[in-house]
UDP-N-acetylglucosamine 1-carboxyvinyltransferase (Poriferisphaera corsica), 473 residues
Amino acid sequence: MDAFVIQGGKRLTGTVRIHGSKNAALPLMAAALLTDQPLTLKDVPDLSDIRNMVKLLKSLGCTIDSTPDLGTTSDGLGVDIKLHATDPSKSLAHYDIVRTMRAGICALGPLLAKRGYAKVSMPGGCAIGDRPVDLHIRGLQQLGAKIHLAEGYIIAEGPNGPGSKLQGAHVFLGGPNGSTVLGTANVLSAAALAEGTTIIECAACEPEIEDLANLLNSMGAKITGAGSPVVTVEGVDELTAATHTIMPDRIEAGTYVIASAITNGDVILENFPTRTLTAALDRLRVIGVDVTPIPPHSSSTQSLEPITTPDSGTPIATLEPKTTTLPGLRDTVRIATSRRLEPAHVVTQPHPGFPTDLQAQLMALLTLADGNSVITEKIFPDRFLHVPELLRMGASLTRIGPSVMVTGVRELIGAPVMASDLRASAGLVLAGLAARGTTTINRVYHLDRGYQRMELTLQKLGADIQRVKGASV
Ligand SMILES: CC(=O)N[C@H]1[C@@H](OP(=O)(O)OP(=O)(O)OC[C@H]2O[C@@H](n3ccc(=O)[nH]c3=O)[C@H](O)[C@@H]2O)O[C@H](CO)[C@@H](O)[C@@H]1O
Ligand SMILES: C=C(OP(=O)(O)O)C(=O)O
């Protein structure tokens, strides 16, 4: 297993392009099962989860070509993948593949809708607390599917036996913690080929759902309202070929904003999905981190001098020139950070609230704020495996149920730590970038699930970070 070794204390500067989104790409790839025509996805990130989804789709009868080959990219650009479901006889999504990632369950809706039968292993994914699939199952049952569980598999067939068509219906996807993102993806994909109209209430509003609906519509589906809690789907008889560019990864984008902020850096991010990050950018602004759009006509490498206070010459947060460019999905932005980080109260919530997938990274930043912060996790109340590791680095954290009180410290100190899940690992990398001395992060395979060659990106920005191959250090 690889490890990262970081010598902290380097200020990050330079430009990085945000990759295509992992959490959008995975369900969009599974949509290839909905048609017997080819689907081309552009700017897919080159990640281990994507390689596992390729394996899964091949085992389900798809031929897959990628340019360049998956596993051969460095950082910056993704791959274009052509997926073609040519053998509809295979409907078993095996435990060996699905256990490696949560999004393996995205095969369920498309297989059931197109082939009328699916046997899909209960999924794996990050160990971030309970992750039931009851809402996926109830949602598909409301479309008439007959579903039972056996030996760790979800076995589903159409209302009138294997091969029969799902029926449009009123589907409610609300659970104890709000809606479900991948459950919405499953029901939406299945409803696209159902007979009649489906109305999904309490649908997840995450931007990745909008990206999926956009793809399905370009394949011939009739979906309106995606991105809101009520989505209407008029079923169609078939879906056809399409080409689609994956939206930028809002979580990777937020992580690199915090990487710049925690090192008091000066970083420009391209392909930045501003409008998907409103809540995160709001909290960051409170903390003292401004994300300023660079107008399209200016060069991304131009020098924007910070305004200085007249008396001391000390840089303050605001940068000139101000722009009126409307924030969009593929902006270029510059990160400016005050020297003093303010504390903040943060509650993770379904979109458009603050994303749980940025909670660990924000906690790393708040360990260095000037005062007490409180972070409350409302999606996965046990998603705090980074807390004991940050404590090893000198952070001051007190967990009380689903909340953590973060008392800012003057500095973090490098230490050997253990990555336990994807975003916890990202939080530890950020802490290591700011810490005094050496931080060794073991088990970075978690990071490779969600960040394309993170160490190369950070090296390019001036970080001292090395991947040590083969064994934990
Ligand atoms: C591959 C992918 O896109 N993963 C994301 C997706 O995961 P995923 O789609 O698995 O997460 P969900 O949106 O389903 O989970 C949200 C909440 O609903 C609960 N729940 C979920 C399903 C269900 O059947 N029953 C139920 O009670 C979960 O325990 C959790 O408390 O959304 C999460 C929440 O934004 C993110 O952290 C993950 O990064
Ligand atoms: C939790 C995540 O992924 P998954 O749902 O695949 O475990 C994540 O992307 O932060």
